[in-house]
TrEMBL record:
Boundaries of every Phosphotyrosine protein phosphatase I domain copy: 1-139
UniProt-listed PANTHER family: ARSENATE REDUCTASE
Protein name: Arsenate reductase ArsC
Organism: Marinicauda algicola
InterPro entries: Ptyr_pPase (IPR023485), Ptyr_pPase_sf (IPR036196)
Phylogenetic lineage: Bacteria, Pseudomonadati, Pseudomonadota, Alphaproteobacteria, Maricaulales
């Protein structure tokens, strides 16, 4: 099952969620992907630092436009999760397979410019996303049942 995580810049929150869905979801057959409407061009260095500090592989991560997942040759998504309010409010492409949609709004840790507080903000974002991904993975959902999938994603945000 493929889950696409969207954030406008695709450099912090969505990158972290992509890694968490992929690594924690591997036993359940879940694969995370991420993209943005106006990608920054590369993952935020602090996002990579925090992921690596928690033992995650960051090789191959990239900041990319969301339209790459609307192409006919793109993997079919079963769910699309927005993690920033601006991405949730945007009109995005029509995704092949008509995936369910959910919103897990979080403050942007990259907006914290004071270096001593930035790592703390990224760690808090990592923990919030990890908690939500773990709650989703432990819940009762089926990839072929859009209602159970949407309910599980929404419940994980509560």
């Amino acid at each position: 099952m493929n889950i696409l995580v969207l954030c406008t810049g695709n450099s912090a929150r969505s990158i972290i969620a992509e890694v968490l869905f992929t690594e924690l979801g591997r036993p359940c057959g879940v694969r995370g992907h991420s993209a943005g409407s106006d990608p920054r061009g590369e993952p935020h260095p602090m996002a990579l630092t925090v992921l690596e500090a928690h033992g995650h592989d960051t090789s191959g991560l990239a900041s990319k436009r969301w339209d790459v997942f609307a192409r006919p040759d793109a993997p079919v998504m079963q769910a699309v999760v927005t993690v920033c309010d601006s991405a949730a409010a945007e009109t995005y492409p029509v995704w092949p397979g008509a995936p369910v949609q959910a919103h897990w709004g979080l403050a942007d840790p990259a907006a914290v410019t004071e270096e001593s507080r930035q790592r703390e903000a990224f760690n808090a974002t990592y923990q919030a996303l990890r908690t939500r991904v773990e709650a989703f993975l432990k819940s009762d959902w089926r990839a072929d049942d859009p209602v159970s999938l949407r309910n599980a994603l929404e419940a994980a945000h509560a």
